[in-house]
Amino acid sequence: MLFWYQQQSDYRDTFDDLAQAMAVAQETLAYVSVKYNKGLEQLALFGKLTESVQPARKHLETLKKGFEKADLFRYREEH
Question: What's the whole-model pTM score?
């Protein structure tokens, strides 16, 4: 571990000009923000899809309960 630590180069800042560093940081954050917001838009569409299938889920739940009750009458082979 000590050998690895000794091989590491000293930290050096990427920019010499603070204004340039701030401009690049702002540009990067704006890019990330656009991508993040675009991803959130997709999640909103998923939420609408989830809401739209809720009525069908209610009916499917009723159907599932019917199948479970019908399964009680199925012949089961004893071992």
Answer: 0.43
